Amino acid sequence: MGRNSEEKTKKEKEQQEKVDEELDKSGNENDDNAKTHGEILRQQIIDGCETFDRSPSSILLSSFTAGLELGFSFLLLCSVFSFFQGSVEEETLYKTISFVYPVGFILVILGQSILFTEQTSLLTLPVLSNKRSVSSLLKIWGIVIIGNLAGGILIGLTLTWIGPQLGLFQTDVIAKIGEHYASYGILTILVSALLAGWLMGLLSWLVTYSRETTSEIIIIYIITAVMGFTGLHHSIIGNIEIFSAMLISPEIDFLSYLKVLITALIGNALGGAIFVALLKYRAFVFNVKLP
User: Fold this and answer.
1) Number of folded domains in the chain?
2) Cα 155 from Cα 172, distance rounded (Å)
3) Dihedral (Cα; 41, 47, 48, 53), 10-degree rounding
4) Within the chain, where are the H helices?
């Protein structure tokens, strides 16, 4: 039994060494060509390791900034909803606001602030490639989530006050958007968030593939607009929506807020880690043959 275990460990080590060798080879390929699967994977692992190596205070501050910056999407959602309210049906309004939904994501990703859903798959890859531990992954996820949520709560408090003061929207708009986000069953929210996490993981992968800022903006816009149009549950902007509504609407209490938020966080994490990080990594590993 012990011998079989040793042989299995040795085989796994050889496999990992071969995978690392192939990834290193990918890094030396011609930059004039389109990036290969291996090149993208290698860059994602490098980027993920760089985030792991940052100090906790730096990660917390960057993720807090991301939570704040994502609030500009919420500001536009409420403003556009209010502007067209009464002119079109409410169901059409929820589709219309999806066209401004990507703005905060563009600010966050191009500004290189740390957003949990974008970093989920990115941070999972160093663990899959045995360069970082699961415990360090959970720790860094925790820091990023705390920072994102804290930033979102602060910007939510700010916009709930400044929006009506500037005449951009009234509190009933905040309540409607938050109630709409929280109006689904737990299983529905979980699967919806899983799909959103999958899309955000793909966003990170495709941004790594792109070579210029314009293409990055287009990629970010398309993917996040899809999430907005279909109403998929993104935990971080959803935190702003439902927290702000909780301050106003009797329909949402603190328990409902926590239940929806935790479900969305779990779904986003699973979507990014499983459907992007794990599958993309395993697709590369399965193509690596031992000598």
Assistant:
1) 1
2) 18
3) 150
4) 2-26, 37-52, 56-69, 71-84, 90-96, 103-110, 116-128, 134-166, 171-181, 186-209, 213-230, 235-246, 254-272, 279-285
Report residue 95 as tokens: 């589709």
Residue type, 100: V
pLDDT, greater one: 225 or 277: 225
Inside any domain, residue 38? no
User: What is the distance between the alpha carbons of residues 71 and 225, in angstroms, rounded to a whole number?
Assistant: 16
Look-up of token digits 């031992």:
290
Q: Residue 53 belongs to what domain range?
A: 45-285
Q: How many CA atoms lie within 13 A of 151 on its CB side?
A: 30
> Is residue 86 included in any domain, yes or no?
yes
Cα separation, 56 vs 147, in Å, equals 11
Report the CATH number that the domain containing residue 274 is assigned in CATH. Answer: 1.20.1080.10
> 246-257 pLDDT, tens per residue?
999 999 999 999
pLDDT in tens, 170-220: 999 999 999 999 999 999 999 999 999 999 999 999 998 887 899 999 999
35 belongs to a structural domain: no
Q: Decide if 9 is inside a domain.
A: no
**244 token code pair:** 């702000």
Token pair 């509190």 in the structure block, residue: 171
